[in-house]
Batch of 4 targets.
Target 1
Amino acid sequence: MPNPAEVVRALADRTAFAAAPRGTGRYHYRRTSGWHQHTDRTTAGQILSASTEFFDREDWIAADGSGRLLITQGSAVVRPSGYFPPGGLMGDFLVATDLSSVTAAMSRRMSPAGAVKAFSTVWLVQVVPPQLQRSLLLWLAERPGLLVEDADLPGVVVSVPDSAFARTRQLVFDPETGMLLQTRDVEDDGATIGGCSRWLDTGYAESTESRPVEAS
């Protein structure tokens, strides 16, 4: 069985084959889809109801934290969709892509978040070019407790279990390019998937009404 750190470093090397982000503009755009389990409980913890909620989501976020969220469930637009002024959204982007800068930034983001949550949060708020993804993967390869999961998924599944969290977040990477395909939150029973997010599109946009386009 390959060493997990070696597997993740190999993924870092594969980012050389990833495409550069499309589009230009001040807004970091991403489109995801997925689902999460929603449970209503009494104050004593008794489960009243449980359901699976599916969603499609688009984010436009600028460096000053302004932007737009568009979240739909079926044909309905749901909260917290809307337009946000500066500071309304998380615009704390990683700009430098060298390993030392990324390591310092991720060390700050590790508390109180675990390594995998800190990693996925970068992807949740900004465009991640291949050079940045390479450094993120090299940083991830050094995390204690790193695991490569044997899961029946079209990708390389990596996690770092953390006793402080009831769930384990799995990162699923494209084996050809090393880029992130999806995240999955696995409950502490090891079998129940409490949520999943899949990346469908990412790039730069000129406005909150436009989407990434190929450079002419």
Target 2
Amino acid sequence: MRYVEKEDLIEVIQERMLDDSVELDDAILDGLEEKAISFTITYISGRYKTDEIFGTPVMRHPVLVQAIAMIVVYRAVRRNAARKVPEDYTDIYKEAKEILNNIQSGRQTLPGMPEITGDDGTTATLMYGNTTNDDFFI
């Protein structure tokens, strides 16, 4: 695993339950983590330099570690098709997505992480607009 450690996952789920979900195969956790990192990048790449955050060496931030750990745990539990995912794990997955959505929208920041900046050194801001023209003329 390259961004989260097993101890980070154990903060979200008991070790015994995690081991049962992945059948003691760390390669499964590695794959789930890579997919969770890719999922996270799709949320935060508009605001932060993800190549630097997830590059070598990685730049760990507690909020990102928590969100990625929550996603990995949910997907580890979900991979057991023999049972329905307990609501607790579904809730932590929703919470992780909410954290990433907050980062994406700027309601939550990642202090110390490299932000995308313009040529003049200012950070990027998103602008929204609406053209409600009944005649469809601009």
Target 3
Amino acid sequence: MPTLKYEQIADSLRQRIAEGEFPPGALLPSGRDLCEQWKVSRATAIKAYEILRNDGLIAARQGQGFRVTETPLARPAGNRRSGSTRLSGGRPFRRLGSPALEEPPPQIAELLELPLGTTALRRDRLVLLDDGSPMTLVSAWFPGDLAEACPRLAQTGPIAEGTTRYVTRTTGRAPVRAVDVIRVRLATGTEARVFGEEPPLAVAVDLHVAYDGEDRPLVVEEGLTPSAHWERRDNYPMG
């Protein structure tokens, strides 16, 4: 499906940021420069920047233009409805450890449709509250073949364009639907200590599975949030 001009511009800038041409804090080309380079109107250039801003990838600076964000944003697991953005649901985060190929727990292996004993790539992140304390521990599990095709998934630092866009750009496999399941359980001792707590600690578990156009799992995310920080609120019509 052909993309619109402003989407092409946004994708080009996103890739240049991902490849390090524009590191964190770097000033991006001005709207006038984009207009001249792409032969588009100023409104089109601004639309491209708005896409990246909504992804939490860039921020506007008064009198300076747009700069690559110093602090990347990430969302807790789940709630990836069409039209949602990292900016609206994203928070500062930090990576925990290094991504590694591991045998996933049986429940995760089943959701990834992997035979028992098969490894998957695990990436952990800790989503933070406004005061910098832990809010949600998220473990993202990627099938081994997908991890092999997308080597940057194994890097320790964040992927500037986001894992979803990176996987889509690299493999052509984009998420088209998702299943979210919410459960409650007690955290293990190791999990509780990530939050600076000791057992027993009740946590909400958000399981998120994203599927591509051929209904193949792309990723399973498991997000653990202590009960004190978890809330579900829906606003919907009735009658």
Target 4
Amino acid sequence: MREGRYEEVEAGARALEAEAARLRRRGLRLSVGWHAKALATAVACAHGRGAQVLAELESLAADLGGMTGSGRTLLLMVRNNRAMALGLLGRCAEAEAETLDLLRELARIKHLAPVWEIELCALANLADALYYQDRHEEAEAIARGNLPRAEGAALASLHCTLVRGLSGQGRHDEALTEARRFAPRWDRGQSGGLDLATAGALHGLGRLDEAEAAARRALTDCERFLHPDHPRIQDVHALLARITADEPPTPAAEEAAR
């Protein structure tokens, strides 16, 4: 999955889920099936297909309720992916509530199990949900506070949210400086994100040609690597429309488009 081979990973997980249903031992059948379904739905969310698997995530979370040990960790991962799916659907207040509840649960068990990766992903989802509710200062604080310890997809997501949160406050120079400070390791699920954030900062500074070039790079990456339903593609189109129309910068316009 970290190599971005989403289609192969999801197909393998679905095949394993089908095979698990034929196992005789109930405990093994359930465990293998749950883990396979969790992986398949996680890949679908990263690809931008949260709407397609939201009901499946909710059913899986219900099945895992009350579990202990590895089952409890799996439940936390599923809930985190549910929050991501809600965010992809624009249900950001619900995504915020889910991540806050999840973070409280993680705080209770972090001394018992290594859950820091789930925690960072949850924080990235929370920052994103806050940004899309126009709560840019809060989004900035979460992103900035957790960037130093983040890695992988969480690092890329928090970095983009920080850039966009700064632009959302009209701090376009700072946003552009942050966007160019470093380039996180490539993660397919974050395709186009940094170029989109950079384009927003450049547009806010009135550098329209550079903004359009960055936005078109974002669109190319999004269309190549993400599902057509991914909301980032809508965000890029909304920003391109503003840039090419040479409209005054309005940082909340792309959120309204969602």
